[in-house]
Design brief:
By secondary structure, this protein is mainly beta. It is built from four helices and 57 strands. It has a five-stranded mixed sheet, with no helix packed on it. It is elongated and about 95 Å long.
Length: about 800
């Protein structure tokens, strides 16, 4: 097969000659090969490098572009000059780093804290979801950190290198080739990289990473689609899953962009390689370079910009002048226009600059005097001028508020800085909580610099007598007889008389309470522990009265009417013993031993032999008067105990009634074979503990079964609770165990994500003082002594711990009273 001559030189590099119509890069590159100018300058399409990769693959050439045979050697005249003998790069100082949707900070004591997007293990906390500031990893003393698009690396105090997050294309550098499912790409734990080596500098781009070792050598790894590794190879066949050396041994700094890399040597020269489209390499007439090429027209430089994933490049001279070049979208080059800049130009700034940082679409520079200027996109509040409108930008520097900035970080579409007072502030896009103020959401940009956490540091209540969560809120009773709720304020869920009904997790300060608020006092008695449903709550007081509040669309509050913002009494009875709530239904026990249900009855939930019409007043379930416990799942099915006999009714399409059949609803209580002591239900499944202490589940438990199926062989179970696709149970010795899905960390194993799901119970921590447990959907709460702990899903603050982020470990409910 004949090769396209345009790609011949790219595939073979310097081993073969190129046709006369193929231009080469000037400036010397020690065998560096570059391609003709790209006529499409409106985008950074990978079509050119894709062609390189496909050409190599079609010809069966697997070695011709490998730097082992084509990288420049020591005699190459284009080699950067040798270093002064006294130069030895020092580690980056502790500071900040921001990625697309996440942030990390290294404190002076070496503690690494990260927050924001935790997908694919990006926060190295074992999780896969947004999180508040969390101490990261097992290395307790760090020197520096760098975040790319969706992966991160850090240098420990001993100068060892560790990486985590998305390892696709080898950008984590742990030597593992990821060719399986996307879930296999994720590194949830810290991975040691090139063990035995010592590192001084890091810079992470979109799909590749680079670092400088303490001996001044430069190494890169990850995607090489656009020759951004700089080892002489180009194309996806030459992605590097472990660090490979870039020619030269006298590098001081490195910057990894989206599809290019630049390095600064000890002479002050800047060298770039990778895709040159839009002027990213600081020269005209080339498409890409697979080895370092010196950027022409620059005076000696003292440092490069930090940050990453930008298509624009900047560097800083000894006298504090900033020079920029590249794509310049939104004016991120700071030159007064938004046109591409193929040759470096100086930026007009009022003071000498100490450091410059680049993000995807904006840049910031800090002076030695503590002042800061930013420019480029301001569409999401990046410019701190109170504006956040689509397309808004400034192509000239805009001075930021304050004059005591000592550190800044840019990387994604949010920015962070640190002040002399030691405060960390962030602003801009906050979709995944990367600003770090405890909020998140698509429409929650921060136009002012707001402090980063910590949260959950307030007082805790240590007098809880019981509590649980629903889908978006939680409630609990305390020893003084008061009732407290937290989470979503929609539909009167919190029972505090608040009429707010416009609730979105984007604005927690307006729509949710992340710590408990007192329920409106009512009645003459003290509150017993509540039952929390989807959007309503009910609880019995110690005088035997029953009260409910929240949504009432189908009569689930036990009366006609609209949403109740404060508790309303269910009839006038004073012999209520207990209550259980679902989605649109409620059931309760009375002193006579009778069972009563009301609300939705679409699948026979009321147990009165009918399906269809809702009922807004309590209706007795049959005529039995020996009920001892009831459990209601959503508005789907109910199970209850009469002595040791278990009876279920309602929805049965997954066999959740345990009757040996799947199918139509069963509208009257029907006995489940066996002798039982405890039962819990979720919409599609049921679990129960037998009188011999064994545990069984049925329904949609994978595989679906319509008869009780043992869970393990242990016979010391005391209580069970069922959430959506996961279960938790307490043993007689006070230990707590969970199993099933772990999407939001509801298994309490310190991790978040389905990769940590289990089929059999695993212990939650090592505590042996759990008194009760309550799971609902993907959140679970439990009581230890008189303290209340919650974990799992938390998008509306339903854990009550002053955050809106999920947790893979139990976190104590706060006290806002």
């Amino acid at each position: 097969m004949a090769w396209n001559t345009r790609w011949c030189c790219a595939a073979l590099l310097a081993l073969t000659g190129c046709p006369d119509d193929t231009t080469m890069a000037s400036g010397g590159g020690g065998g560096t090969t570059s391609q003709p100018a790209d006529t499409d300058t409106d985008s950074d399409s990978l079509s050119d490098t894709d062609a390189v990769d496909s050409t190599t693959a079609e010809t069966g050439d697997t070695d011709s572009s490998d730097p082992d045979t084509t990288a420049a050697d020591e005699e190459s005249t284009g080699e950067p000059p040798p270093p002064p003998p006294e130069i030895d790069p020092e580690p980056d100082p502790p500071g900040l780093s921001t990625g697309l949707y996440s942030s990390c900070r290294v404190d002076d004591d070496g503690t690494l804290t990260c927050w924001g997007d935790g997908s694919c293990g990006l926060l190295a906390d074992g999780g896969a979801a947004p999180a508040p500031p969390t101490v990261t990893g097992t290395q307790n003393t760090w020197a520096s950190v760098s975040i790319g698009w969706d992966h991160a690396c850090g240098i420990a105090e001993d100068r060892s290198l560790w990486c985590w997050g998305n390892g696709r294309d080898g950008k984590v550098g742990d030597g593992v080739l990821d060719d399986g499912l996307p879930s296999d790409w994720c590194r949830f734990e810290l991975m040691p990289i090139a063990e035995g080596t010592q590192w001084a500098r890091l810079s992470l781009g979109q799909d590749h990473s680079c670092g400088i070792q303490t001996d001044g050598t430069l190494w890169c790894w990850g995607s090489n689609e656009a020759a951004q590794i700089g080892d002489g190879a180009v194309g996806g066949n030459y992605n590097r899953i472990a660090p490979v050396q870039v020619s030269g041994s006298h590098w001081l700094e490195v910057y990894a962009g989206d599809q290019h890399t630049c390095g600064l040597d000890t002479s002050g020269a800047v060298w770039c390689w990778g895709r040159a489209g839009n002027g990213k390499l600081g020269m005209e007439g080339v498409v890409f370079s697979s080895l370092p090429v010196e950027v022409p027209g620059l005076p000696p430089m003292r440092s490069l910009a930090t940050g990453g994933v930008s298509s624009t490049m900047c560097a800083l001279t000894e006298d504090g002048t900033v020079w920029c070049w590249g794509r310049n979208q939104g004016g991120v080059a700071g030159l007064g226009h938004d046109e591409q800049v193929f040759m470096p130009e100086p930026v007009d700034l009022p003071e000498p600059i100490a450091e410059i940082h680049l993000s995807v679409s904006s840049a910031c520079a800090r002076s030695d005097e503590g002042q800061m200027w930013c420019w480029g996109s301001g569409s999401q509040g990046q410019l701190l001028d109170g504006v956040a409108e689509p397309g808004y930008s400034s192509s000239v520097p805009v001075q930021m508020p304050g004059d005591d900035w000592i550190d800044i970080a840019a990387g994604g579409i949010h920015l962070c800085g640190r002040t002399e007072a030691g405060e960390t502030l962030c602003w801009g896009n906050n979709e995944a909580g990367q600003v770090g103020d405890g909020t998140s959401g698509f429409d929650n940009n921060r136009l002012d610099a707001v402090p980063v956490g910590p949260w959950g540091g307030g007082p805790v209540a240590d007098d809880w007598v019981g509590g649980q969560t629903g889908s978006a809120h939680g409630c609990g009773a305390r020893e003084d007889g008061s009732m407290w709720c937290w989470g979503s304020r929609r539909s009167g869920r919190l029972g505090n008389g608040d009429p707010t009904d416009d609730c979105s997790p984007a604005s927690p300060s307006e729509c949710i309470y992340t710590t408990p608020v007192a329920v409106t006092p009512t009645g003459a008695g003290n509150w017993d522990p509540p039952s929390v449903g989807f959007d309503h709550t009910c609880a019995v007081q110690d005088d035997g009265t029953l009260w409910c509040w929240g949504a009432n669309g189908v009569g689930q509050l036990g009366q006609d009417g609209d949403t109740a913002l404060s508790p309303v009494q269910v009839e006038a009875a004073t012999d209520w013993l207990g209550v259980t709530t679902g989605n649109g239904a409620t059931c309760g026990l009375r002193g006579s031993g009778s069972a009563w249900c009301w609300g939705s009855n679409s699948v026979g939930t009321l147990g009165n032999g009918s399906t269809g019409a809702s009922q807004s007043s309590p209706t007795q379930v049959g005529v039995a008067t020996d009920w001892s416990a009831l459990a209601l799942a959503s508005d789907n099915h109910v199970c209850g105990l009469r002595g040791t006999d278990l009876w279920c009714w309602g929805r049965n399409d997954f066999g959740q009634l345990g009757l040996g059949v799947e199918g139509d609803p069963v509208a009257t209580p029907t006995q489940v074979p066996g002798a039982w002591s405890d039962v819990a239900v979720d919409g599609l499944r049921t679990c129960a503990i037998a009188t011999d202490g064994s545990l069984s589940c049925w329904g949609a438990i994978d595989p679906t079964t319509s008869t009780p199926t043992p869970v393990g062989t242990d016979t010391d179970w005391a209580q069970v609770s069922v959430g959506s696709s996961f279960r938790c149970a307490r043993k007689l010795d006070g230990t707590l165990w969970c199993w099933g899905s772990n999407t939001y960390g509801q298994l309490g194993q310190g991790s978040i994500g389905d990769s940590r799901s289990t089929d059999l119970p695993v212990q939650v921590g090592t505590d042996t003082d759990w008194l009760d447990i309550a799971a609902h959907e993907s959140t679970v709460c439990g009581r230890r002594g008189s303290t209340l702990w919650c974990w799992g899903r938390n998008f509306s603050g339903q854990q009550g711990n002053d955050t809106i982020f999920p947790s893979g470990t139990p976190r104590e409910v706060r006290n806002d009273g």
